Amino acid sequence: MSSPIAFDYPQQNAAGATCTAQAWAKTPPQLHGTEKAAVIARIKQLLVEKDATLVAHYYVDGDIQDLALSTGGYVADSLEMARFGKNHAAKNLIVAGVRFMGETAKILSPEKRVFMPDLDATCSLDLGCDASNFAKFRALHPDRTVVVYANTSAAVKAQADWMVTSSCALAIVHQLKVEGKKILWAPDRHLGRYIQDQTGADMLLWNGACIVHDEFKAVELEILKAAHPNAMILVHPESPQAVVDLADVVGSTSAMIKAVVEGSATEYIVATDKGILHRMQQLAPNKKLIEAPTAGNSATCKSCAHCPWMAMNGLQGILDCLENASGEIFIEEPIRVEALGCIERMLDFTKNHPDLLAKAQHGFVKNIGAA
Ligand code: SF4
């Protein structure tokens, strides 16, 4: 069952401050040797002195993920990052990820100061769904329940009934369908179509996409699979339908990691940002992990399986947050209060309905049962 795509957005201006070329240009240099050790030692010291904790996404640099885990912070998907930041006692949060993750932390914890290594680290889904156009889309469909993906600005969340992440979208949309609700979905068209296919819900989709997942190629994936016939294919549902159709497991970053850790296969082809391989390999050291193919470096892809905005996070940026209070997130209070409702609704749902989440997760997984 296919979903109508009811609203389009103009292409972002490639000369804009947040285009992928500029993001790659701002990627910080890798630190090495004694310089890297000194920066890490200083960050560890300042995290304690400033009562701060580091929360990192699976897609950021492996050194940052290791630093978060070794200092009592957290490495997770966006749902668990939000929950951890809200519940942690630290007065200051350093969020290594992209802008909407820092904003979500601030919305949930206004009493905390939230910092990010580079405030220009954004997301193509967020960029492609500006608040004023989204308001027009909503105005056309006042009868629909508004469900937005986490990858949106605070100003878009302020217009939503529900926020979801890829970990809980299926369960929440399924529940809304049971309640007879029609849904207006934004911004990822691939995830929206996948959820619509799985639940049969009546969904109108915004026409956004993640530039990383959008570039996985089904034809190339089939060739890779032929070379690794026993490999299990894991696909994030932000990927195009033809890629999802080849998957053994379709799921969020957390679900993909779980599938590798618990799976009986020895080889896994992974269709999501390659930053996830760092944590995945740590948790499943004996499994062989293979990057799913895109158009290829030097070809047409803008990301080649790595998000340019996630790549903007560096150790020096974290140190700048702690030493100079740089990269602080501020959100106007009326917007924050408006945006809070849809996030709290999601957190309450996921806390109170683990059974529905587990059941829905079953729908993300093909061939191997629950993951
Ligand atoms: S990987 Fe895709 S969805 Fe995630 S932040 Fe980058 S552009 Fe956005």
How would you portray this structure in words?
By secondary structure, the protein is of the alpha/beta class. The protein is 44% helix and 14% strand. Helix 9 crosses helix 10 (189-199). The chain is globular, with a radius of gyration of 20 Å. Residues 1-17 and 366-371 have low confidence and may be disordered.
Q: In the CATH hierarchy, what is the class of the largest domain?
A: Alpha Beta
The tally of domains stands at: 3
Widest sheet: strand ordering: 1-9-8-6-7
Helix and strand element order: EHHEHEHEHEHHEHEHEHEHEHEHEHEHHH
Sheet-strand content, in percent, reads 5-15%
Helix count equals: 17
Reported for the largest beta sheet, the result is: 5 strands, parallel
Q: In the CATH hierarchy, what is the architecture of the largest domain at level 2?
A: 3-Layer(aba) Sandwich
In short:
With 371 residues, the protein is an alpha/beta fold. It is built from 17 helices and 13 strands. α9 (169-178) packs across α17 and α13 (253-262) packs parallel to α14 (276-283).
Supply database-style keywords.
binds iron/sulfur cluster; 371 residues; Rossmann fold; five-stranded parallel β-sheet; four-stranded parallel β-sheet; Quinolinate synthase; 4Fe-4S; NadA_sf; alpha/beta; EC 2.5.1.72; disordered N terminus; 13 strands; globular
Can you lay out the helices and strands and say which pair or pack?
Layout: E1 5-7, H1 20-25, H2 33-49, E2 52-57, H3 62-70, E3 74-76, H4 78-87, E4 92-96, H5 99-108, E5 113-115, H6 124-127, H7 131-140, E6 145-149, H8 154-157, E7 162-164, H9 169-178, E8 183-186, H10 189-199, E9 203-206, H11 218-227, E10 232-235, H12 241-244, E11 249-250, H13 253-262, E12 267-271, H14 276-283, E13 288-291, H15 315-324, H16 333-352, H17 354-364
Parallel strand pairs: 1-9, 2-3, 2-4, 4-5, 6-7, 6-8, 8-9, 10-11, 10-12, 12-13
Bound molecules: iron/sulfur cluster.
